[in-house]
Amino acid sequence: MNRTDHIKEMINRYQSSFYFYDLDQFEAHIKSIKKTLHPDIRVWYATKANPLSEILRILNKNGFGADVASLGELQQARSAGYGPHDLIATGPAKSKNYLAAMMQAEVQAIVVESLNQLKDLNDVAGKLGRTQEVLLRVQLDWNDDLKSVLGGSTITPFGLGVEDWQTIQLSDYKNIQVMGLHCFQWGNMLDLAHLEKVWTHTTEACQKLSLAMGFPLQVLDLGGGLGLSYSDNREMNFSEVHELLLKLKKKYELDKIWLELGRFSIGKFGSYLTRIVDIKTVRGKNIIVTEGGINHMARPALVGEAFPCEAFMVEGTTHKRYAVHGPLCTALDSLGEFDLPESLKVGDWLEFKRTGAYGFSESMPHFLCHNLVGEAIVHHNELMVPRVPKTNLEWMV
Ligand SMILES: Cc1ncc(COP(=O)(O)O)c(C=O)c1O
Description:
With 397 residues, the chain is α/β, with parallel strands linked by helices. The chain has helices spanning 3-14, 23-36, 53-61, 71-79, 96-104, 115-128, 162-165, 192-213, 238-251, 263-266, 299-303, 392-395; strands at residues 18-22, 41-46, 65-68, 87-89, 109-112, 132-137, 176-182, 219-221, 256-261, 270-282, 285-290, 309-312, 319-325, 334-341, 349-353, 374-379, 382-387. 30% of the residues lie in helices and 25% in strands.
């Protein structure tokens, strides 16, 4: 069976919206990243991009660690087989209980994002009679007003500024061992020259800070941000990114560099499929209404950027412009405007591509009591359905 047959099988079996991940292509991509890697460059998977267990297992088998940002992600990664040295923890919300759970899981490093986190972790580690290795998360001032989902130049809860970190004495935190710094403020970067500018500024600022605070920069974690375009076929070339890392490593005599990749790992290998429920023209505008919308895939509404959309198995040489809306009673439920075949009719299916990252995991499933979206995978050319779509009767209480 080929990809189209697998998708047709899903449609026939469930008649309800679903994500479809091609894990054979994904595994080949991950293996090619693994083959490129210098031993001093470590790649962690940003679990938030897509926490599906089979995805986590493939990454783990190929030497990726997991970056987790909640107790749920920690537990998911642990049950997918990640051992203590395969885990790091980022995220602005770390309660004492969560910090203790991470120490019990013996994660490789905790990325500390505030003075309270530092103090709480020092207490938790003291109670356990252990020392915890950490990275301090830094938020730089970029001196411009560019925005990004990760904050860009705006002030966010992610980490602390350079001056904020310098208000403390690390020697006051006896149970903490600082291994390095973490800095990540720009998402979905598609231009290598821009990436070089961002990473060069980050490296210089982090070296200065580690010197000022008096610890060696054993690890510099540059986060994620490797881009995958949603408006054309562009994507970062990992070999070029890797060359850039080696250039920075040499120039700044860096010891170890870490990356936390989300979108670039799995984004390209997922599709979201949903059925057309209505087609109409409203005051001159062609509108399609679909069975699932931002309840299954909220990102277009959150960041104002559509995933690319095609009609699934509908022929037609003439296209027209349609605005595609999901089923929710809010104009926010807009999935984008696309050129689609004029011959489209109610009951046909649309496929939103490149939705492997920040698709399922970033949805708002409960508004209006619709079906919950399913998830299907193809691995070793076999169709499996780890998450069967659920009707409202199966999830409402
Ligand atoms: C701390 C952290 N690391 C890594 C990532 C992954 O970023 P990307 O998907 O751009 O690779 C994110 C995304 O939000 C993040 O918050």
